[in-house]
């Protein structure tokens, strides 16, 4: 049994991951912006109330992140952090259409948010015998695979997250730090035409959180466990 920490666990891939984690008998600290309104999460709480802690956190708000970690007990261990929360605010924008306010917000949530969460989680991860951090990235953040261009803000936000995660892997040889592409998934972000269901993606991602270890640190995989180009 491991203790997982998941951001953006109220819907989409984050909710799917939360279900997988609990179904397998683990402990879960799950965060979202508005816990009170999240019926799906409270249903999980009803089924697994001994195993789940639901906390309010907005990854764009420093105080909100600090408050969550300050509320954890001194003996709290986090074995596996999954930074899942993310936004895709402007789709397909070309150079002339870049909205820099949206870009700034996207970088704040998708790139800096996960790093702020990881920075605060570090003392709790260091108490684990096998600490792991998984950053939910996107193939759209791959520079090598960018053949269609556009979506400057989202692509850049995930490329920055990829680079910072590689730095974490280099700096912390005893911690597994990996970026994971969840597939093109049927969520409000991915849309109904996406070929991968939330359950398929979440199951694949969860299996990888168990399978991957320090020898895989600093690498980029998709939800099927296939290595992807940076
Ligand atoms: N779906 C895909 O095809 C796809 C493909 C590649 C990568 N991804 C990545 O997968 C992750 C999950 O995406 P998804 O498809 O599940 O998207 P989603 O259904 O739109 O869910 C996004 C999640 O992020 C949360 N979130 C957004 N801004 C936040 C903030 N400031 N603080 C805390 N939580 C915040 C949302 O919370 P609220 O409910 O409060 O808004 C929600 O829980 C993202 O990192 C995304 O970039 C998705």
UniProtKB/TrEMBL annotation:
Pfam families from the UniProt entry: adh_short (PF00106)
For this UniProt entry, the molecular function terms from Gene Ontology, in alphabetical order, are:
oxidoreductase activity, acting on the CH-OH group of donors, NAD or NADP as acceptor
The Swiss-Prot or TrEMBL record describes its family as follows: Belongs to the short-chain dehydrogenases/reductases (SDR) family.
**Organism name:** Pseudobacteriovorax antillogorgiicola
**Record protein name field:** NAD(P)-dependent dehydrogenase, short-chain alcohol dehydrogenase family
Record field: transmembrane: none
């Amino acid at each position: 049994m491991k203790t997982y920490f998941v951001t953006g666990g109220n819907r989409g891939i984050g909710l799917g991951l939360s279900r997988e984690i609990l179904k397998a008998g683990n402990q879960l600290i799950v965060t979202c912006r508005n816990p009170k309104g999240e019926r799906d999460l409270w249903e999980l709480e009803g089924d697994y109330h001994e195993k789940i802690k639901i906390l309010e956190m907005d990854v764009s708000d420093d105080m909100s992140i600090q408050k969550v970690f300050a509320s954890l007990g001194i003996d709290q261990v986090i074995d596996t952090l999954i930074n899942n929360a993310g936004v895709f605010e402007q789709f397909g924008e070309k150079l002339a259409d870049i909205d820099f306010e949206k870009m700034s917000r996207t970088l704040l949530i998708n790139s800096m948010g996960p790093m702020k969460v990881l920075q605060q989680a570090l003392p709790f991860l260091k108490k684990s015998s096998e600490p792991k951090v998984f950053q939910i990235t996107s193939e759209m953040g791959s520079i090598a695979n960018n053949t269609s261009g556009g979506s400057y803000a989202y692509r850049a936000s995930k490329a920055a997250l990829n680079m910072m995660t590689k730095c974490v892997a280099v700096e912390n040889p005893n911690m597994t730090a990996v970026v994971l592409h969840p597939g093109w998934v049927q969520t409000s972000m991915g849309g109904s035409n996406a070929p991968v269901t939330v359950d398929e993606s979440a199951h694949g991602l969860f299996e990888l959180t168990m399978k991957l270890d320090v020898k895989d640190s600093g690498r980029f995989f998709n939800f099927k466990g296939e290595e992807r180009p940076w």
